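Support request, please re-run this one:
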Amino acid sequence: MATWRVVEMRLILTVCVLLYGVAIMSVAADMNQKSDEGPRITDQQFFDALNLDRPGMEKVKTAVGKSDLPAAKHEFAEYLRHRTKPVWKVGWLASLPRGKRNDKTDTREADRILQRDLPSVGVYHKYEDKIDWSLDPINYKEWPFQLNRHAFWTALGLAYLATGEEKYAEEFVYQMTDWVRQCPVPIDDSGNRGVLWRTIEQGLRMGHNWPAAYYLFLGSPSFTDDAMVTMIKSMVEHARQLTKYPTTANWLTMECNGLMHVGVLFPEFKEAENRRKTATDRMYAELDKQVYPDGAQIELSTGYHQVSLNNFALAWDVAQTNDIAMPADYVLKMEKMFDYNLLAAMPNGYLP
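Re-run finished. Output below.
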């Protein structure tokens, strides 16, 4: 009898252990599922990264001090909506048509994107339901690479400004937050072996396409506090990746331009000065490493020459526009690359 009691107790204990193990596995699976969504940076980590003593941030600091993070998000978003500096491409933004739709308003490209018929390398693919950001519908790896640069968000933003119709802003917010959620930043990895977070795409997103979308939609009520903070959380994650995983040659210029833009356009972060310095130091060094004495870019391709030159210039432009000092001979070194274009041009004005 006692033996059966012992067996019975062992069976009960075994079942309990198995049930406990299943519960632990379920919790772990749930945690893994959550960890596989972006942004990885938490609200608390986000506000810890801000310089709350910066002028204009008083209401944000008060809300954080009360541990009222929803209020802190609202106050930070309001601060961003109403700040006048830093600025980005002032002339371009000011030149854009604004108002209501008329018979001359052309939103065909934006309307296509609104239907999630998205372009990459000149080829469109229509997603019937949710967007799979890693999908390669034409069996050409450049298609998902370039899709994830998000250049098409600019078309949505231009249509929004031209018409004032919130459907364009709503779709941008959906796509941007969906991308951040589906595509979390790699952990302890550059991302260069995958599709979504290669450093070249990171640099291109931060160096133009995301700032363009941010400023084009900044005044939209659809660009909510949560959406804005989600976007900037991801920009912080981009900047940290670009700081940690530099590459070489023309890729590095795109990475540094992206890093410079985040450092200049969001000086509210404690890491902003280091981002600007890191980008400046790397770019300045590359003007010697990457450029031959005659001004040719080291890869000896006129196409890559323009890529590097364009990013050298864009980083300088966003810095100068916002009174960020650059090395005194930065432009002088860059001028050699412009001179090379003139000297290498064929009689018809084109480069070989």
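The chain has a mean pLDDT of 92. The first helix runs from residue 2 to 35.
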